[in-house]
Fold this sequence. Notes:
By secondary structure, the protein is mainly beta. The chain is 0% helix and 33% strand. The chain has no helices and 2 strands. The protein has a two-stranded antiparallel sheet.
Amino acid sequence: MLGKEITTLVNENKLPGEYTFEFDASRYGLNSGIYLYQMQAGEFNSTKKFIYIK
């Protein structure tokens, strides 16, 4: 866990609704491992993990 930010997918206001965003790990030269992602919207804040396997 190095704590480095890789990228920000979306940083803009959105209207209420469902949205889908794609993260292409190959663009960032990531190694296989466990990564954390964070979602924030108003008072909502959620951090989860995903496993990337090349």
